[in-house]
Amino acid sequence: MAGIGDQVVHKAEALLRQFVQDDPSLACYIDNSLSIPKVFAGDGEIKLIVLGQDPTVKKPESRKKITTVLNLTKGGSLRGYLEDVCQKLGIELDHNVYATNLLKNFFVAPPTQISPIDIFKVFGDVWLPFLKEELFVFPDVPVLTLGEPLLSTLVSKGVSAQVRYYWGYRRDWQTNPPVDFRCVAPAENRLARQLFPFPHQPSLRKKFYAKNLGSYIEHVRQELETDRSN
Fold first, then answer.
1. Residue 229 has pLDDT above 70, yes or no
2. 126 CB contacts (<8 Å, ≥6 apart)?
3. Is the dihedral of CA 39, 44, 46, 48 positive or negative?
4. pTM score, two decimals?
5. Chain segment 180-228, per-residue pLDDT in tens
6. Neighbours of 230 (CB within 10 A)
7. CA 36 → CA 13, 15, 66, 78, distances in Å?
C-alpha cells in the first residue's frame, strides 16, 4: 500500500507541473515551497475512503508540518475525530482507511479565502479525474467527505451541497430529532460512489452536529453493513 502512496504523489507532482506550464497565470495561487503530502493508507483491507479538501491551512508555518494527508500520522483533534468515527463504524483507522485530498497541492491561502478565481472549479476540474483514477484500485469503497466546500465540488447539479441536509436537519431538530439520514448516491455525484458527508472537525462546535454525530455514524454503520451483506 505504501507503494501506491508514492506513485500517487509522483504522478500528482508531474500533473501539477504540466498544469502550470499549460496556464502559467495559475502559478501565483500555488505554494511551491511545499511538497504534495503523502496519502494515508491503512495496512489492511481498505473499507472506507476519507476525502479531504486540500492540505492548506491558514498559518504558513503550520503548513510546513503537514507531510501526510490530514496529518493522520500525528495526533491531534482531527485524527481523534476520525478515530472515534472509525471505532463506532467497527473499523480501524490505521488498518482500514485510505485518506487523500481532492486538491493535492498547497495554495498560498486556504481556497475559500482566494477570490480572484474559483479555486474549486479551476483546480477541481484538473484533480477530479486524477482522484477517480487514484481510487480505481478500491472499487465500490464508500467515501467519507469532510466539509461543505469539498461536497459542493463533488455533487451533481441540482443535488444539495449542505452537509446538514444529509443529516436530516430541520428547524425544530432540538425538539424533533432528525431521523431522515441519507448519503449522496453514486448517481448524484461526480465520483460515482456512495458519499457520506461529514462536517470538518471545527464544525463540530455547532450544536446540531455535536448532538447528532452519533446518530449519523450509526446510520453510516448500518449502510456499510448492508452493503457488505449484499
1. no
2. 15, 19
3. negative
4. 0.95
5. 999 999 999 999 999 999 999 999 999 999 999 999 999 999 999 877 7
6. 5
7. 7, 11, 9, 19
Domains belonging to the chain, first-starting first, are 2-229 (3.40.470.10)
- In terms of Cβ atoms closer than 10 Å to its own Cβ (0-12, 13-18, 19+), residue 221 is middle
Q: Which three cell numbers stand for residue 59?
A: 498559518
Q: How many residues does the chain have?
A: 230
Question: Hunting for cell 491531534 — which residue is that?
Answer: 76
The secondary structure of the chain as a DSSP string is: -HHHHHHHHHHHHHHHHHHHHH-GGGGGGB-TTSPPPBPEE-SS---EEEEES-S--SSHHHHTT--BGGGTTS-SHHHHHHHHHHHHHT--HHHHEEEEESS-S-BSS-GGG--SS-HHHHHHHHHHHHHHHHGGGSTT--EEEESHHHHHHHBPTTS---HHHHTT--TTTTTS-------B-GGGBTT-S-EEEE--GGGGGSHHHHHHHHHHHHHHHHHHHHHHH-
Distance CA 216, CA 173 (A): 14
Q: What are phi and psi of 100, to 5 degrees?
A: -150, 170
Distance (Å, rounded) from C-alpha 76 to C-alpha 225?
29
- Would you give the distance in Å from CA 160 to the centre of its chain? 17
Instruction: Say if CB 48 and CB 141 are below 8 A apart.
Output: yes
> Which strands, in side-by-side order, build the sheet including 40-41?
40-41, 97-101, 48-52, 143-146, 195-198
